[in-house]
Design brief:
The structure is a single chain. The chain has 380 residues and is α/β, with parallel strands linked by helices. The chain has 3 domains: 153 residues, FAD/NAD(P)-binding domain; 123 residues, 3-Layer(bba) Sandwich (FAD/NAD(P)-binding domain); 54 residues, 2-Layer Sandwich (Enolase-like, domain 1). Helix content is 23%, strand content 31%. It is built from 9 helices and 26 strands. Strand 14 and strand 15 form a beta hairpin. Helix 1 packs parallel to helix 8. It is globular and about 60 Å long.
Amino acid sequence: MNTTIIGSGVAAWTLVRELRKADPEAEIRLITADSGDFYSKPMLSNALASGKTAESLVMTPAAKFAEQQKVELVPNATVSAVDAESRRLTSSAGEFSYDNLVLALGADTIKLPIEGDGAGDVISVNDLNDYAEFRKLLDGKKEVAVLGAGLIGCEFANDLLKADIHTTVFDLADRPLARLLPEQASTFMQNKLAEKGVSWKLGRTVNSISKNGAGYTLTDSTGETTQADLVLSAVGLKPRTALAENAGITVARGIVVNNLGQTSNNNIYALGDCAEYLGKFVLPYIMPVMQAARAMAQTLAGKPTEIKFPAMPVSIKTPDCPAVVNPPLPEHEGEWEITADDNGVKALFKGADGALLGMALLGEASKERQALTPQLPAMI
C-alpha cells in the first residue's frame, strides 16, 4: 500500500513519523513544492529576538528525515492535478499513482485590497523562504507597520520590539485579538505591549501604501498617514483548497474531512491547516495537527481510529504579556467571569451550571494553564 503525502510542513512530517511507527513496512512518498526541510512554523513569529536565521530554524534537513523514516522524497515539485478515480496525480516531477493520498497543503496568507504603488511590496511570513526574505529586508530598518492585530500580528509586533524595531499595528477591530479574547483581556494585552513601545492604530483599515524614498507612507481609513520602512501583513490564513476542489472533493472554508480525516473521497485525506474537521473546525495550530496525525496514521495502517480533539489551549508567544487562550465553542452559552490586576487577567467562561467552557489567561494568570485545562470540555 502506497501512501502519498503532498506537503512538508509539521502536519506532513508528523504523519510520516507516526505512520512509520504504526507500520514499519509502509510505502510512503512525500511530494513537496519546496526543499522539504523540517522546521517549526510557529517559531517564525518569534525568531527575530533570539537572532535566528532561516538556516538555524531547520531542525532536520529533508534528505536526512526521509532517510531516517524510509520515505521516497520528491522535493521542489508542484502537484497540478489529482485524478481521484484512477488514483493518479500529475506533478512537475512526473505522474505518480497512490493507494491513499494525504493533502497536507497548508494555507495561504490573505491578501488585503490595498491601493498605491507600494502595495505590491507588502510582505507576509508564511514559510522558511518568506522568513529568510523578511530577515534580509529588515536589515537596517527601524520602523515596521504590521497589518493585523490577531495572534500572529501581536507575536510579530512583540518580536520586532525585542529586536529593537518599533512597530505600529493596524486592525479593523477596535482591540487586539478581538476574536480570541474578551474585551478586558484584549485591553490588558494592548496596554502591556504599548508600555513596551508598540503603537496601535485600531478601528481602521489601511487604504493605500505609497513609496516614499526608501520607505512607505500608509494612509488609513481615518485619513491619517504613517511612515514605515517595511510593511508586514499578518491578517490571517486561507486554507489551500484548489487542488482538492478541482479533483471533485468537497470543500468549504477548508477541505472537509470526517472523523477519520477522510475527504468526500475515501482514499484521499486532509490534515493540518488545509483541513476543515467535521465541517466545523479549521485549526491552524500545532496541537490539533499532532492529535489528528496520530489517529490518521493508525487509520492508514489499517486500524481505523477516530480523530479526537481534547481541550487544546493556544499559547500566544508575546513575552511582554504571556497569554493562553481556549475560546468557548460557538454553541456554548455562558458568561465571562473576569478577575484582573496589574499583573494579569484571569477570564473564565462558565455555563449556567458553573462548568468551565473556555478561558483566557494573561500575564501571571497564564501560569494556571495546567491546573485549569483538565476542566475544559473536549472539542470533538
